[in-house]
Amino acid sequence: MKWLQLARLDHAKQLLERSDATMETIARLSGLGTAANFRTLFTQRCGLPPSAYRGMYSRGGDGPAPPEQPTSHGR
């Protein structure tokens, strides 16, 4: 049954990346139950809450923002 849970989390990730659906809607569409259950399971399995995961994609990019480069002074 672990594979089913992982498949549901993968579906939830796609929804977080590509939609502005609420956590309640994503939980329901992914078969993960309530929003609270979804948040708990997602955080345990992915290492960050779903809202933070979505934030990585809401900047208009394809994933996490690259680290900022130090500015060079005097060049």
TrEMBL record:
SUPFAM superfamilies referenced in this protein's UniProt entry, alphabetically: Homeodomain-like
InterPro entries, per database record: Homeodomain-like_sf, HTH_AraC, HTH_AraC-typ_CS
Source taxon at top rank: Bacteria
Protein name per its UniProtKB record: Helix-turn-helix domain-containing protein
Annotated ranges, domain HTH araC/xylS-type: 1-56
UniProt organism field: Streptomyces malaysiensis subsp. samsunensis
Keyword check for 4Fe-4S: no
Molecular functions per Gene Ontology: DNA-binding transcription factor activity; sequence-specific DNA binding
Residue ranges of the region described as Disordered: 53-75
Pfam families membership: HTH_18 (PF12833)
Keywords attached to this entry: DNA-binding, Transcription, Transcription regulation
Coiled coil feature spans: none
